Amino acid sequence: MEKTSFDERQEKQLLRIEHIGSAIGWWGLLTAIMVQWVLFGSDFSRLGGEIIVFIPLSLYLGVSPIAKGLRDRYWPASLRGKLLISLFFGVAAACLNAAAVWLRPESAWNSTAGMFLILLISMFFVSFIFLSFLQKLTDHRANRLEKEPDDE
C-alpha cells in the first residue's frame, strides 16, 4: 500500500467523501437518463452522452468489488435483501414504463394493468437471478482470495 501524508482518520474521511461523491454521480446520471427517457423517449441522440458515461461507471463500480471478493456494506447479501432489491427494481421499471405511457400516449407500449404487472414480475425475476449470480461470483472470488498465500 502506498504511503500518504494522511493519518487513519483522514483516510477514512477521504474514502467517505469519495464514496458519497461517486454515489451522487451515479444516481444523478441514472436520474437524468430516466427523466429524459420518460419525457422524450428512447432517442439515443438525447441520451447518448449520459449513457456513454453511465455504462463504464456502472461496470467499474460493479466489477471492482467482485474482483476483490467484496460486498457493498449497504446492500445485504441475504435472501431478504435480494428480494427487496429485486422488488424495488421491478416496481421502478413498471412505474417508469407507466409514466412514459402516461406522458406519451402515442407510444407503442400498451398501458394496461396487465402490462404493468408483466413488466414488474419479469424485472423482479431477472433482477433476483442477476443478484444471485453476482453473490455466487463474489463468494467464489472471496474464497479463492482467502486460499491464496500472502506475498508479504
Tell me the layout of helices and strands.
Layout: H1 8-40, H2 44-67, H3 79-103, H4 113-147
Helix pairs in contact: 1-2, 1-3, 3-4
Structure commentary:
The chain is mostly helical and 152 residues long. The chain is built from four helices and no strands. Helix 1 packs antiparallel against helix 2 (44-67), helix 1 (8-40) packs parallel to helix 3 and helix 3 packs antiparallel against helix 4 (113-147). The radius of gyration is 20 Å and the shape is globular. The protein starts with 7 loop residues before the first helix and ends in a 5-residue tail after the last helix.
Keywords:
152 residues; mainly alpha; 4 helices; 77% helix
The succession of helices and strands, N to C, reads HHHH
- Largest sheet: number of strands, sense, barrel closure: none
Question: In angstroms, what separates the terminal alpha carbons?
Answer: 11 Å
User: Helix fraction?
Assistant: over 70%
Extract low-pLDDT stretches.
Answer: none
Mean pLDDT value: 83
Shape: globular
Sheet/helix structural class? mainly alpha
- The number of helical segments is 4
